Amino acid sequence: MKIGRLNHVGVATPSIEDSIKLYRDFLGATKIHEPFDLPEQGVRVCFVDVPNSQIELIEPLGADSPVHGFLAKSPKGGQHHVCFEVPDILAARDELLAKGATVLRGGEPRIGAHGVPVIFVHPKDMGGVLIELMETPKAGH
Length: 141
Ligand code: CO
Fold this sequence. Notes:
alpha+beta, 8-stranded mixed beta sheet
């Protein structure tokens, strides 16, 4: 297990449109990608590029969205997770499980917003931070 590049910071929001205005008009972000739905994960997502990383805006999609719980505690939204790249998602998962960390969904990777497999490591084992690990996208991905 070797932590790689910070790929993005996930930010939950009740409104992607409002958050886009904030990042664009207050903070001067110029590269804001088109929002898209990930129905199987119950989220709508929008990536905002910053020079060395991305912000992933996450809005709940549907009544069963896992983001509703987060927004119930933090109605204005807030920092939700950080995502690091790893070269091999299954090797990373197996090592974390062997070390006693809790990987969500039983450690079953799923395809994340970047089209590569991701896992989430429970914050109780990660100093209170929800950690997403994603397999490093191949060149041209
Ligand atoms: Co993410």
